[in-house]
Amino acid sequence: MEKWLNTGIQEVIKQYPKVGDILNNFNIGCTTCNPGTCILGDVVGIHNLQPEDEAEMMYQIEKEIYSHREVVKAKVEVNSPQVTEIVYSPPVKELVDEHVLIKRWLALVPKVVEILQDGKRDIWAEVKQGALFCRHYADELHHGKEENILFGLVEQESEIIKIMLDDHVFGRENVALILEAAEEKDAQKAIKHLNAFKDMLTEHIKKEDEILFPWIDRKLSSKQVGQLFTQFSKVNQELADTSLKYKEVLVHLEKAILS
């Protein structure tokens, strides 16, 4: 299996489509992941399945790939209670909490799109404010903590880190185009990039909350958790005005768009 554990997951699924079904059965959604460039071995490690679930999944995958030979399932001893609830360290929980605010803007996007399509209401000020919320709160504050602090504590060449960074770039590009559309009052352009941004960031946040952040937390020492907390606190102090301003902007947007 060594060869396949070091092969990109989409290539594995391309050659053995049923592997995608097996992963889905264990709530690993590689078949719908847009990049799909993580290697199979990393996919298994990052998702942190319970030992018996991982053994069963790998048994099924190996049986599918090596259908011509007998495959023996690895024996697993369970010596401690199983924990399924995700428990984040305090600094990582801070990032998860910031996601909650960002998702409140994403939840407004379908209504914004509906208003733009209808064309009877001037919503350009809200489109611009929403894009600026994404630029300054979601990107400058939140993604800044990830890129400049958190990601530096793990392997920079990890495929999942590369994917997250590519998502950040994609997001910045779309925010810039949304702002352009607001200046031009180009509804179709705004709709295109609002939807692209929403779809990407919704999936991005889910990956971070459920996969990336728990994986990073498992790697952090107590000392590193303390360092993260200190560094995040410094950023929060430096960008306190920005954070407060855009939290207030979000409340205004919810009232204005949903009224």
Automatic annotation (TrEMBL):
InterPro entries: Hemerythrin-like (IPR012312)
One GO cellular component, as annotated: plasma membrane
Pfam entry (one): Hemerythrin
Residue span, Hemerythrin-like domain: 92-216
Gene3D superfamilies, alphabetized: nmb1532 protein domain like
Stated name of the protein: Hemerythrin domain-containing protein
Source organism of this protein record: Alkalicella caledoniensis
